[in-house]
Amino acid sequence: MLKIENEAQSATVYLYGTIGRDWWDEDSENTAKSFSKTLDELSPKPLEIRIDSCGGDVYEGFAIASAIQRYAGATTAFVDGIAASAASYIAVMADKVVMNDYAQIMIHDAWTFTGGNSSDLRAMAERLDSIDGQIAMIIAGRSGMDADEVRGLMDAETWFSADDAKDRGLCDEVVVTEQRVAACLDASMAKLFKNIPESLENAESHADGTICTDAARPVVLGNRVYRTKE
Questions:
Q1: pLDDT by residue (tens digit) across 168-195?
Q2: pTM here?
Q3: On the chain, which terminus has fewer CB atoms closer than 10 Å, C or N?
């Protein structure tokens, strides 16, 4: 389900889950109708689009991409986790694309379930070829790659790391993950640990915004790192 944060000077929409209807989890669906209506209401504020989606309905994806394209304000897409399949060409429709260094973009050929006689199946194959060509043009238009190269990458089902995506022109900025560090603790805690990463020696505390320059060594507790004082 589409989540919205509407501030005075800017807005954020969360495109998390399925593109289009989700028949198994209604809370995970993001329909073009709802998305387009939301953007019309938010325009022309600067808009952040946070994306974590494995894709969904190709035509719903086209309509969502169109809504971003015609949005009056500046748009920035943040790939928080993954922008795969239909979500890939939605992401690159924004004015700027930002990826976490652990995020991914995936492109592939369109696929479907179908049935019928040989004529029906040939017609569906032709429709899928046409859809692939349209997706390739969107990706090529953003990246600078030519459409034939994109079609080859789609046919191979290509997964781009953040750095790969930036090299290919699919991403403008990669956000490097910072190690989160908590406040200083008693030095006795350090005796419980023996393999402390040296890279954390001068880490800054996100808990209080300080650096413990007089600390003897860091201590790891769960998913946090603590500095210790002598």
A1: 999 999 998 875 544 443 344 444 545 5
A2: 0.76
A3: C
